[in-house]
Amino acid sequence: MGQKKNDSSRDKLGELLISEHALTKEQLQNALRRQNQTGGRLGSKLVELNYIEADKLVDYLSLQLNHPVTNLLKIRFDPRALALLTFEQMKSYQAIPVCFDDQNRLIVAIAESSENEQYAELPFVIGKPIKPIVVPAYQLTLAYKEIRERMNNIPDDGFVLLDPFSPGASRAAQLAEESFPRIWTLFKTLSTSGASDLLLVAGAIPSLKKDNEIVRLDAPILTPEQAEVYARELMSKSQMDSFQESKDIDFALTDEALGRFRINIYYQRNSISIAIRHIMEDIPTLEELNLPAWLEGYALKSQGLILVTGPTGHGKSTTLAAMIDIINTKRKRNIITIEDPIEYLHQHKNSNVNQREVGIDTQSFHSGLKRIYREAPDVILIGEMRDRESISIALEAADTGHLVLSTLHANNATLAVNRIIDVFPAQHQQQIRMQLADNLLLAFNQRLLKTEDNKRRIPAYEKLTNSYRVANMIREGQAHKIRTQLVGTEEFSTLDVSLANLVKQRKVHPDTAFHFCQDQKNLMDLLR
Q1: Are residues 326 and 464 in the same domain?
Q2: Are 401 and 466 in a shared domain?
Q3: Co-location of 233 and 352 in the same domain
């Protein structure tokens, strides 16, 4: 009897799809053949063979069964809901608690073919009203598998199921699950390795970046399908929508056991790549970073502009975090930061530290800065001065009595000054020179170099501090003369001088210093 009912149901779905021109007779025969070989339900075989999309299957099941069917792939599983039942109870009741609706009812997923009425007992077991939703049987099976594998490692913001039969994931992703390490295993490897970054690039073996060098992991070459699986595991639905539109996204994730991570997901060669940076929870001191103690004096200034410059991955954000922590500890200030994303989490000490993340707390650096004066700031940290608007507001804030700290991509301190000026049209550049001349406190350019014993990285730096002479050169459009006329003075010290000192102290190998220096002949003279 039961088999006849299943056959009847199977035939009705197939007939419906053919009558709606959603399926050909040949495709139906292929799906039935696959079902006879491997078992399971017809709907899942149609999706597996890419004959029909999950959304369409849901629509046709609703028509066939004459009641709504929900696509479970579009719902985020809430860990608070999942915690209300054990995995064994979910299997016993053939139902999975998914999330809560607006009326705080527990939404419970059951299979479209379920004849088990036990889920009716759940309101009494859980002590909450429930709202059952009917989902395709194969999606409920996927959910059981995902929950069993995650168990105690479910992210705070939950997760969304990835359909291994969808065109975006393909069968390759389903098979790859057996050989590729899980994403949180890779996170654990990163957090315990001492490396700065985890790099997941299709066509390459998953890699760590340690001391600015690539270290391959013991894993297979990453496929485009598996890279997408990892990306979908890391992103919420809204983040995935934003990523599909913009083709790249930055955000941060925190795991209680492993720490905080900054994540960038982007496209290259029409496939997804992921860069993950491990952010240390404890904010290091200037001494721990091997940075000069005199930086503290600038951090404690009441107003002006401090720029930390240099290439990506050379510790600019960490230097700024250490300076903010000095203010937070030694001054009573209202500190506002705008970051993309937030890397270091500051606790309120003697100061208030308000940290705003682009994309979550504000739409952009520009929109976050536009109304910043209403937030009564004493100190403003701008994660990066990226455009004319953010630079203009930073200079205005420094000019009106605020201390402003920011990063800028520039190869040296004097180039940073010129880069700020060159962003503006020619008719506005003199005004910008005046503002910079009046408000610049420090341009600090840094590089992180591998130590001679290869055990860690330490900074070499270039400093440009403002003075009467420096201000005049900036004001008169002669910032380029700083490098020739003020070198070796109290106001200006080059990167090459810092490199030479590190070599003399036997902290850095000469070859490393020559790799990073700006003038090899000058460095040779300094070493003599």
Answers
A1: yes
A2: yes
A3: no
Could you give the CA distance from residue 154 to residue 63 in angstroms, rounded to a whole number?
A: 35
Cβ-proximal residues to 244 (8 Å cutoff; 6+ apart), any chain:
none
Instruction: Give yes or no for a contact between 255 and 155, defined as CB atoms under 8 angstroms apart.
Output: yes
CA atoms within 13 A on the CB side of 185: 11
Provide the CATH number for the domain around residue 119: 3.30.300.160
Question: Would you call 274 exposed, middle or buried from its count of C-beta atoms within 10 A (0-12, 13-18, 19+)?
Answer: buried
The 3-state secondary structure of 270-299 reads CEEEEEEEEECCCCCCCCCCCCCCCHHHHH
In degrees rounded to 5, what are phi and psi of residue 268? -145, 135
Question: Do 144 and 205 reside in the same domain of the chain?
Answer: no
Structural domain that includes position 102 = 72-161
Pairing of the two strands 492-493 and 457-465: antiparallel
Residue-wise pLDDT tens digits, 105-126? 889 988 876 555 666 778 888 8
Asked if 144 and 197 sit in the same domain, the reply is no
What share of residues in the chain are helix, strand, coil (percent, to 5)? Answer: 45, 20, 35
User: Do 202 and 225 contact (CB within 8 A), yes or no?
Assistant: no
Confirm whether 510 is domain-assigned: no
Task: Return the amino acid letter for 359.
Answer: G
Nearest-5° angle of CA 340, CA 188, CA 171? Answer: 90
Same domain, 177 and 314: no
Q: Which ranges in 194-223 belong to alpha helices (H)?
A: none
CATH of the domain at 380: 3.40.50.300
SS3 29: helix
Cis peptide before 341 (omega within 30 of 0): yes
pTM given for the model: 0.59
Task: Please state the φ and ψ torsions of residue 155, each to the nearest 5 degrees.
Answer: -60, 155
pLDDT score of 116: 56
The whole-number pLDDT of residue 45 equals 79
Pairing of strands 259-268, 271-279: antiparallel
| Residue 465's pLDDT band (cuts 50, 70, 90) | very high
Residue 361 belongs to some domain of the structure: yes
Neighbours of 472 (CB within 10 A): 11
Per-residue pLDDT tens digits for 196-240: 899 999 888 999 998 778 999 988 888 888 898 899 889 888 888
